[in-house]
Amino acid sequence: MAAFRAVSRRRRWRASAVLFSVGDESDHVLLIRSGRVKVWSMSARGTEAMLAIRGPGSMIGDFAAVDGEPRGATVTALEQVEADVVSGGDFRRFLHEHPEAMFELLTRVVARLRESDRHRVEFASSGVAERLARLLLELVREHGVPDGAGRRAIAIPLSQAELASATSASREAVARALRELRECGAVSTQRRQIVVLRGDVLAEYAAR
């Protein structure tokens, strides 16, 4: 990544800042150094659909830089974010001069497509509790931190509405699913915080 950073400039965003919005004509690329962002769009029903959460090491904005199309999603900072920013033109030259980076980009694209396909299958065949369990396992694996009692807490403060948008469910259905997961001892919840108490129980739900 040294060659990438050589043509980049450093930038910071405060929590809740919008890095770019769906439909924007911009084509710059960001490589996140610290902090986390939420990638989201609006559904056909006019509700927010959370597509992903990205953290340090993630590259965002690369699709628009490659195909020249408007942004396909909005990216919002969940906390203070610092990233290396490269213009679309410099990014394309970087890929041309570094074939190994082109291969890495292709690998990232394939991984995103596989993730998208997996989510579509899960949403079509699973209940809300099962989908929520899979999401929580993914979040604690990628963004979990020790809570001081030998357990893992999800470091990102997510509302029930955001969990609902990420699982294609209603807020009421997510509230019921969280209650079910609490009652079986899989998780504990406080305001916008979730701690995984029994990863094995959560995994059993996810495997249903």
From TrEMBL:
Residues 126-200 form the HTH crp-type domain. Keywords: DNA-binding, Transcription, Transcription regulation. It comes from the Bacteria. Residues 1-112 form the Cyclic nucleotide-binding domain. This is CRP-like cAMP-binding protein. One of its GO terms (cellular component) is cytosol. One of its GO terms (molecular function) is DNA binding. Gene3D superfamilies: Jelly Rolls (2.60.120.10). Pfam families: cNMP_binding, HTH_Crp_2.
